[in-house]
Design brief:
single chain; alpha/beta; Metallo-beta-lactamase, Chain A; 8-stranded mixed sheet; 23% strand
Length: 289
């Protein structure tokens, strides 16, 4: 039986960017929040990449989001700006361990090896712990989540395709987290909504930084048929370049609706593809662009 949304003040199906900070310096300074991304879809609630501040940002969100209502926590990779609040989020999802509940989905090196990021004492709290793999497929309620391939980053990192039902051929949401660009990357992520982590505004000469930069996005998006592209996870030089202005420019260059996320930005997922003027966008909580 399909669950119904219990989040007063939100659409039935929505995504909320609690934080939009990318990389260590914006995280450390909290120029933007490093909290994770909340998704409610077909009655299932999950948190992606609960970085530092996720617990506080969720509680202070307007309206508040209750981590105890989560059905899953998904970690794209183990770096601190993505995993800092992983353990407290799992603790909340399971009522401090009193209610065995939910799933944790994470790469192998976040769960095993010499330096896992999920505490050992928490391992028995969720109903299941799932290890990501290339061409992996995982069920969360009626939803399907796929990890088509391992990305090119300093640790094991996976992008996500999120389907609102197991029968759908095209994902509703594709998320490309931290990665170096490589040929054919976006061909693996064909969602109606594409979320891109864009740390850099431009390539840094002499530096081998395995993150996407804004200057390469137009070429990456050429010929693609996304209904909406959201840029997030901004590093310092992206913030200085004013990502909302860059997003407008990219929209003009590609003919695809592109927006830059701000802390608190909420999208009505049922409106994706139905309002070319961005009616799916809700106002942010702090007035940021």
């Amino acid at each position: 039986m399909k669950k119904t949304s219990t989040h007063k003040g939100y659409p039935d199906n929505f995504i909320k960017f609690l934080g939009t900070a990318g990389a260590r310096f914006v995280m450390i300074s909290q120029l933007r929040s490093s909290a994770g991304t909340w998704i409610t879809l077909e009655g299932e609630n999950f948190m992606i990449d609960p970085g530092p501040g996720t617990l506080v940002r969720a509680a202070k969100s307007r309206p508040p989001l209750d981590l105890r209502k989560l059905d899953a926590v998904i970690l794209t990779h183990r770096h601190l700006d993505h995993s800092g609040d992983l353990n407290v989020t799992v603790e909340a999802m399971t009522q401090g361990g009193w209610t065995r509940n939910g799933a944790v989905l994470a790469p192998p090196d976040a769960l095993d090896g010499n330096d896992p990021v999920l505490h050992e004492y928490l391992r028995s709290y969720p109903e299941e712990i799932l290890t990501m793999k290339e061409q992996g497929s995982y069920d969360i309620g009626d939803l399907k989540i796929e990890t088509p391939l391992k990305l090119r980053h300093g640790v094991e990192t996976f992008g996500l395709n999120i389907y609102r039902s197991k029968e759908d051929e095209r994902p509703l949401i594709s998320l490309v987290p931290d990665t170096l660009n490589f040929p054919g990357l976006l061909g693996h992520f064909p969602g109606k909504l594409l979320i891109l982590n864009v740390v850099l505004s431009h390539e840094v000469p002499g530096k081998n930084i395995d993150h996407l930069n804004f200057d390469e996005l137009a070429g990456m998006l050429e010929g693609r048929e996304y209904e909406l592209v959201v840029l997030t996870h901004f590093g310092m030089n992206m913030i200085k370049a004013k990502p909302w202005i860059l997003a407008e420019r990219l929209s003009e260059e590609t003919g695809i609706k592109v927006v830059a996320a701000s802390d608190g930005l909420t999208l009505d997922l049922d409106s994706i593809g139905h309002d070319a003027d961005g009616g799916a966008l809700h106002k942010t909580e702090n007035g940021e662009k």
